[in-house]
Write a structure and sequence with these properties.
Rossmann fold, 7 strands, alpha/beta, binds NADP nicotinamide-adenine-dinucleotide phosphate, seven-stranded parallel β-sheet
């Protein structure tokens, strides 16, 4: 049985990953901040992970009973969506950068040794993190954090190349979740089905790449 750990599994895209992998017969581990308040089925093992609390990541890495075939990092924070080029509130800056950047680095570093041979780490990034695509300062802080996440993915892919670990950045599309909002055209099942196809196809979507849920390569 293959094993996946989804971090940020309480709602949105992370929850949809949990549902789809469970339906596909995987052993599913769900990392979320408040396991006690989840109503996930009992077959899904929950782990308390707050990606801003590095000790919680260390504890999960130690507690894992199975090697991971896939690690999906879906936890993310949007912060205040400024319209123009404005200095972010420093507290918001710390929260968004710690969640999206520091948390992703720590998850990859601590969990890479717990990955099975040929395993894949999928990091949910955003098209808003693409410098090549940037055409507006809208949500500047979030854009900067996701641009940094993209760099984390490139550096991790290079750091773990010799161990055969594959690390990719994924853009889920604009999806109707709490973060995506009610006007988003895409629903989580379609986005996650597409991302799972990319995650499963190591030949078509190699380590160190940035791909949309449809499998299109994106500019960094
Ligand atoms: N939706 C979109 O249109 C869209 C587009 C591009 C990229 N993305 C990316 O896709 C990922 C998932 O987004 P989403 O739409 O599912 O967002 P969402 O509905 O807002 O869900 C965010 C998830 O992240 C978790 N989270 C936040 N801070 C955390 C922390 N410190 N530790 C652990 N978990 C934490 C939340 O848990 P709590 O319930 O505990 O808060 C929740 O499970 C994010 O990385 C996002 O940037 C989304």
């Amino acid at each position: 049985m293959k094993t996946v750990l989804v971090v940020g599994a309480s709602r949105g895209l992370g929850l949809e990953f949990v549902r789809q992998y469970a339906a596909a017969g995987w052993r599913v581990l769900a990392g979320l901040r408040h396991p006690a308040s989840t109503d996930l089925p009992a077959a899904i093992t929950t782990h308390a992970i707050d990606v801003c609390n590095l000790a919680s990541i260390d504890a999960v890495a130690e507690a894992l009973q199975h090697e991971l075939d896939h690690l999906v990092i879906s936890a993310g924070a949007l912060g205040v969506k400024n319209l123009g080029f404005e200095t972010p509130d420093p507290e918001d800056f710390d929260r968004v950068m710690r969640t999206n950047v520091l948390g992703t680095i720590a998850l990859i570093e601590q969990l890479a040794p717990r990955m099975a041979a040929g395993g894949t780490i999928a990091v949910l990034s955003s098209r808003m993190g693409s410098i090549g695509d940037a055409d507006s300062p809208f949500a500047l802080l979030y854009r900067c954090s996701k641009a940094a996440v993209n760099m984390v993915v490139k550096c991790a892919a290079s750091a773990y190349a010799d161990s055969g670990l594959r690390i990719v950045a994924l853009y889920p599309g604009w999806v109707r979740t709490e973060m995506g909002g009610p006007d988003a055209p895409l629903l989580p099942p379609e986005s996650v089905t597409g991302m799972r196809r990319v995650i499963d196809d190591a030949d078509a979507f190699p380590s160190g790449g940035f791909f949309s849920y449809r499998g299109d390569p994106l500019p960094w």
